[in-house]
Design goal:
Chains A, B: It comes from Rhodococcus oxybenzonivorans. Two copies of one chain form a homodimer. In chain A, the strands form three sheets. An eight-stranded parallel beta barrel of chain A has the order 1-2-3-4-9-10-11-13, surrounded by eight helices. In chain A, helix 3 crosses helix 5, helix 5 runs parallel beside helix 6 and helix 6 packs across helix 7. With about 450 residues, chain A is α/β, with parallel strands linked by helices. The first copy, chain A, has one domain: Luciferase-like domain (TIM Barrel, Alpha-Beta Barrel), CATH 3.20.20.30. At the A-B interface, helix 2, helix 3, strand 6 and strand 8 of A face helix 2, helix 3, strand 6 and strand 8 of B. The complex binds flavin mononucleotide (2 copies). One flavin mononucleotide binds next to helix 6, strand 10 and helix 10 of chain A.
Chain lengths: ~450, ~450
Amino acid sequence: MSQGSQHFHLNAFLMGVGHHEAAWRHPRTEAHRVLDVKHFQELGRIAERGKLDSVFFADTLAIGPRLEHNTQAIFEPVTLLSAIAVATEHVGLIATASTSYGDPYSLARKFTSLDHISGGRAGWNIVTSAGADEAANFGVDGIPAHSGRYERAAEFVDVALALWDSWEDDAVVLDPDTGLFADPAKVHTIDHDGPRFQVKGPLNSPRSAQGRPLLVQAGSSESGKEFAARHAEAVFTAQRTLAQGQEFYRDLKAGVVKYGRNAGDLKVLPGIVPFIADTQEEAEALERSFTDLISPAYSLRQLSTMLGVDLTEHSLDAPLPPLPPLNEIQGNKSRYQLVKDLAEDGSLTVRQLIGLLGGGRGHRTFAGTPEQVADELQIWFEQGAADGFNIMPPYLPGGLDDFVDQVVPILQDRGLFRTEYTSTTLRGHYGLGEVGNRFAPGDALGGAIGEASA
Amino acid sequence: MSQGSQHFHLNAFLMGVGHHEAAWRHPRTEAHRVLDVKHFQELGRIAERGKLDSVFFADTLAIGPRLEHNTQAIFEPVTLLSAIAVATEHVGLIATASTSYGDPYSLARKFTSLDHISGGRAGWNIVTSAGADEAANFGVDGIPAHSGRYERAAEFVDVALALWDSWEDDAVVLDPDTGLFADPAKVHTIDHDGPRFQVKGPLNSPRSAQGRPLLVQAGSSESGKEFAARHAEAVFTAQRTLAQGQEFYRDLKAGVVKYGRNAGDLKVLPGIVPFIADTQEEAEALERSFTDLISPAYSLRQLSTMLGVDLTEHSLDAPLPPLPPLNEIQGNKSRYQLVKDLAEDGSLTVRQLIGLLGGGRGHRTFAGTPEQVADELQIWFEQGAADGFNIMPPYLPGGLDDFVDQVVPILQDRGLFRTEYTSTTLRGHYGLGEVGNRFAPGDALGGAIGEASA
Ligand SMILES: Cc1cc2nc3c(=O)[nH]c(=O)nc-3n(C[C@H](O)[C@H](O)[C@H](O)COP(=O)(O)O)c2cc1C
Ligand SMILES: Cc1cc2nc3c(=O)[nH]c(=O)nc-3n(C[C@H](O)[C@H](O)[C@H](O)COP(=O)(O)O)c2cc1C
């Protein structure tokens, strides 16, 4: 159990009409809603009804292998979350944005806007964009090397943090008598002059309610964990067994401490795809009804990308062919490892593997009653594998409705989850303190996260 | 009068609590609302009550000279318009974004998102970012040369247009039986390989209701007008006299025809800052009450930037010093020329000039009764200087309320303005046809705007 918090945290990871890759073909969904902003506003309100900490949207900068059979990530996440922000009051709003393309000034501005619009509920899932298809949309040939991506990410985040500090909390004075809108002594250039970015600042927007967005990260490779340990306040991760979850948790928290932070300053949130029904049999049947709708052609393409080997002509009823070594994977190293661990002993056919991965692209799926889902979460929380969970409903909105209406009340009864919001900001929901400002005189917290960049 | 349309068009240019630089100090405004998204949602609803074609937000990528005394552009415009989109149903939503920084893939995605969210109401004000302070936030030293900015803009827009075509209208099939989400034969790579951008595509979002956002432009230099003639569907412009307005209008329309387009394919919208009251005397007194609140220090800094000469130590009661020649101006050439024309004969002191510019940074201000404002607009429209107007309320929301409730009904009575929306899209409001798609087989309009880039 994480130190200093009695409750755990819940994020709803929202994607189209559900995480299951065949969700949009299932009678429990209405596929055309993937294009309807009202659908997403409704999801935000359902999450808020469940007092969830946050909702989250993933993003990639290319259509990837999803074109023919998948319906994900149609909206740019910050734009979408802005529309959700004004339809909700409490729930946190986490958007994915890449450090490998784009620039820190525009990114900092966009998230500050979302934080202003939402009154302090913005979060940034920092990703380094592993895809060659993404690179090709930004003038880059092939997959940029893993290490270079993380180096760029580090400088990118340093600049963004400096920009978010560039206006002190009380810089805006709005004094009509003197005609002073902002106090120039409290607005600072950052004069960043690094290998990849030269940014003068200040940001063109005053400091927002949270000071800056919550920093979220989801890389699980060694450099990913290193980056998370240094910067992240919440980490999404795919862990399939309690033992793996515990190991990842210990590892990451040790890293956090190594960087002079408190273990509790970072919340570990493993993902779970819950199929919920009144009996375990019904829940399993529900899961099967989704698995039966999978398009093998699509799944094979996705699996090929994940594993760095062409499976599109491979037999569905044979085991996986030999896989390339980890050091040849420039994409998502940790997801590669996860699949390799699952399938390497040859006991699974490709078809079985596809079924196993269909719910959440490698994330743990769990079919059971509301009590059983609550038990699972409680065990992971109490046995040191999680500070909370990334809930990935297989179908939407129904799968989120069921979690909120059937599982959350059990968690609340057990004292594991809040019954009311006690904070107005996303940082507050996650039990994190206020952020300092490197420029604020006498601010003990100043520079506590990231250093001044110049 | 523009060919083929009986009505003129009205855009509300929204900025903080008003365009007048002292608006936030005036008793008619509440300054803290510059940070309140609800204020901007209310402005969207007021514009919609007046059946206006659109609302528009400017943007610059630096705080510029506005820090101490001005309250503009706190929100990133697309994020803000997304929040306004879901609070309105009809009014168009035009956001400024730069072609000099950022990249076409992310920009195309962001505007497609806004178009999806708003059901086809997005517009893009294409700007080339003239400021040295903006350059310094993106690793560029000094002001990038005027010509290079427009060259980059041309390629940037070409790529964005190709990306917006990359999904055909009917590419999304959502066929649950076959499991086909989108038809791969109707989703195209663009394979752009140009001097500044290499972009493979397709875009990671299906085609939106309008196909692409309305293209708006506001550069008035020769290259600006050339660019507008080729690409723009609406042009914002600062014109102080009817004769100047007529000349600009003729000039631009001739350019449009030169590019093989119809004159009516581009709408010219000069700006006007209306002070409205029951009598002319009251309107003039209202304007004076704003002028009296101007901070000369702030205005001098702004004027210095505009004219490329340091006026911060110059006497307020002397005329302007000699100005540098036009070819030395790398920033906003047309605004420089406008001020030079106004003040060059030495008849205005700097203080008088500042008062004249305070309402709309060079845009025409007009103080009068609702009838007089309506007369002015009618004259400009009927005498060939405008297809509509960019209404720049000096204070908000009051100045927009007054325009909508007092001037619009007169225009409607005279048959000059719509009484109901007759279209659901921004393009429709501006009387523009549907856009083609270069990739659609047998689409006569295909490639009509911009060419395929590779
Ligand atoms: C729950 C979760 C969500 C993720 N969302 C995104 C995303 O939206 N965009 C993206 O490019 N990567 C996403 N990732 C991938 C990670 O950011 C990271 O790139 C990946 O885990 C590979 O990192 P690694 O190379 O450090 O292992 C996500 C990962 C997880 C576990
Ligand atoms: C009504 C209006 C609005 C404008 N809005 C912006 C803006 O938001 N951002 C910007 O950088 N420039 C803006 N401009 C400036 C123009 O885009 C252009 O850069 C300027 O007129 C100089 O262009 P030129 O060099 O072709 O004269 C605006 C101009 C006008 C007339």
